[in-house]
Amino acid sequence: MRKLLVIAVLIVSSVCVKAQSPWTKGAFETRQYRNVFVEMGYTPEQVEAKLKEVFYDVFEGPNKVYFEVEDSLGYVSDIKNHDARTEGMSYGMMIAVQMDRKDIFDRLWRWSRKYMQHQDGPSKGYFAWSCKIDGTRNSQGAASDGELYFITSLIFASNRWGDNTGINYKAEAQKILNCTMPRGEGRDEMFLIDPTTHLITFTPSGFGKGFTDPSYHIPAFYEVWAKWADDGRSELWIDCAAKSREFLHKAINPQTGLNPDMCSYDGQVMPGFGGRRNPSANFRYDSWRVPMNIALDYEWSCADRQWQSQYGETIQNFFYSQGVNDFVDQYRIDGTLPEENEILQAGGFRKLRHSIGLVATLAAVSVTCSHEKSREFVDALWNAKHVPFDDGYFDAYYDGLLRLFAFMHLSGHYQIIFPK
Predict the structure, then answer these.
(1) Residue 286 among the catalytic residues
(2) Are 149 and 176 in contact (CB under 8 A)?
(3) Please, which residues bridge with residue 66 across strands?
(4) What pLDDT does residue 184 have?
């Protein structure tokens, strides 16, 4: 009996050690992915069932955010804001290509192309960032993260399904890329990538092209473009990846791991107006994505692994100090709570919450960590219930998508799709 007990202890210990041993090479090189849930003791059957459950919640369940219309179209809706956004549409496409759901991918792309993408004029190739669910545009302007995901997911679709199955995915990705490059037409140029810093813009035009959003920085996506976009700009995209990693070092507070919602290209927060503090200097909704984005770059490229491992533990240490089950979803980047007028409202509510979207991304960054605390963040995600808060607030869209992305990361299902 004692011998069996010792064996059991050794097995559990070996699982714990493995879970705290991040890899030193990325999937571009190894084509391998960790299943952190299994490493931490969940069975492969449990993990697959849970992933299917979370996918069902987003795309098929009673609180789904994906809807099919007409014969061949579909959209993802930010339910609480009654619209479809390039963020959600491109996220949906990335999830669909990862999960080998060509039917969903093609429907989302057709809707995006029909209603969102500008086919001519100064904004040709770019996408209107928000539309009503009937396709009417709420805004003509683009938000650069949408294009970032559209391009990458289209390249993956080309790699996975080829370009002769009804949509020439590679050509569509190249069209967007070509339209985001300087055209020399003597007009106010629109830039997805700032030509001086090689960093992604907040918006390609107007005031927004003068600064960036840390959550738009996913260096490994540029490496995908460099390998398979076939647009003649591989060296540029490799440089963009390097510049993006350098930027994140500057934008993230080294003591807390928190980053501002928006900032200048040098990583500095932007001043407020009229003597007021700029609330975009705070860690809030967009900022939640940064831990997960850094986890993705670590998993795929591992080009900045030492800093990324330190970052993962720093941000988990901060939120651990706030209580794994108690931290809120908005802070100043020094770790103090925002004033009432700094809190960004959502769905008609202005309130700090323990949001499952942030629970998800803090769990995802565990792939970079060696400390034991990461297990608690992973377990917190596994056990979290995506249900309405007591006051009725419920975000099926943003919380739901980030939750699904995190389960994909931690189960080894968010992968580089190589050409067949």
Answers:
(1) yes
(2) no
(3) 76
(4) 62
Among this protein's residues, is 87 annotated catalytic?
yes
CATH for 244: 1.50.10.10
d(CA 163, CA 409): 27
For residues 277 and 388, membership in a common domain is answered with yes
Using DSSP, state whether 74 is helix, strand or coil.
strand
Catalytic residue among 87, 261, 304, 342, which?
Answer: 87
In a domain, 7, yes or no: no
Q: Would the pLDDT of 201 be above 50?
A: yes
Q: Pick the catalytic residue: 286, 297, 313, 329?
A: 286
Rounded-to-integer distance, Cα 59 and Cα 73, Å: 14
Q: Averaged over 242-263, what is the pLDDT?
A: 98
What's the rounded Cα separation, in Å, for the pair 213 and 207?
Answer: 13
Tokens 């739901």 found at: 400
Q: How many CA atoms lie within 13 A of 374 on its CB side?
A: 29
Same structural domain, 202 and 302: no
pLDDT at 182: 76
Going by C-beta distance under 8 Å and a sequence separation of 6 or more, which residues neighbour residue 375? 16, 19, 40, 366
Domain termination site, one of 232, 251, 270: 251
Structure tokens at 27: 């999937």
Determine the distance from the C-alpha atom of residue 224 to the mean position of all C-alpha atoms in its chain, rounded to a whole number: 15
Instruction: Return the C-alpha torsion angle 308, 310, 312, 318, nearest 10.
Output: -150
pLDDT digits (tens, 9 = 90+) for 140-199: 999 999 999 999 999 999 999 999 999 999 999 999 999 998 766 545 689 999 999 999
Residue 333 lies in a domain: yes
- 55 lies in which domain range? 21-63+254-412
Q: Is the pLDDT of residue 288 over 70?
A: yes
* 74 lies in the same domain as 144: yes
Q: Which of 210, 232, 251 is the last residue of a domain?
A: 251
Query: What's the mean per-residue pLDDT of the chain?
Result: 93
Please give the Cα distance from 201 to 390 (Å, whole number): 38
